[in-house]
Amino acid sequence: MVRAMAIYLYNKATGAKLFEITAAEKQELIDTLEEEHDADADYYLDADVLDFLAEKLSAPFHAKLKDIVPARKSDEEPDDAAKIIDDTSGIEVEWKEE
């Protein structure tokens, strides 16, 4: 009997394994978020993306993602244009089948 491969979500920057996801959860990401190409398996997640995903993903999967995404720093306006881009406000994740 052939066993289905497990699917794991990783922190793309560090390579750290975050948690296992189901095939259905992987499909939720694929269906909801934009891929740059057919073989794309990575996504940038931040507080704004989580807000967008709240009604689109299953509640348990959304909660798992919320646990790994840094909290929104502030709703205040940035002092200058350079502060608009802040790499510490999100995480790039990728899924891998193993």
Structural account:
- Helices cover 28% and strands 23% of the residues.
- It has 98 residues and is α+β, with helices and mostly antiparallel strands.
- It has one domain (7-73, 81-97).
- It has a four-stranded antiparallel sheet with strand order 2-1-4-3.
- The longest helix has 10 residues, at 23-32.
- The two termini are 17 Å apart.
Jot down its keywords.
3 helices, 98 residues, single chain, 4 strands, alpha+beta
How do you describe this structure in short?
This protein is α+β, with helices and mostly antiparallel strands. Helix content is 28%, strand content 23%.
SSE map:
Elements: E1 7-11, E2 17-21, H1 23-32, E3 42-46, H2 47-53, H3 59-68, E4 90-97
Antiparallel strand pairs: 1-2, 1-4, 3-4
- The number of strands is 4
Coarse morphology: globular
Biggest beta-sheet profile: 4 strands, antiparallel
Which residues sit in consecutive blocks of at least 5 with pLDDT less than 50?
81-86
Give the helix proportion (percent range).
25-40%
Distance between the ends = 17 Å
Oligomer: single chain
Structural class determined from secondary elements = alpha+beta
What is the residue-averaged pLDDT? 83
Major sheet: arrangement of strands? 2-1-4-3
| Rg over CA atoms | 15 Å
Summarize the helix and strand pattern as letters.
EEHEHHE
Percent of residues in β-strands: 15-25%
- What is the tally of helical segments? 3
Q: How many domains make up the coordinates?
A: 1
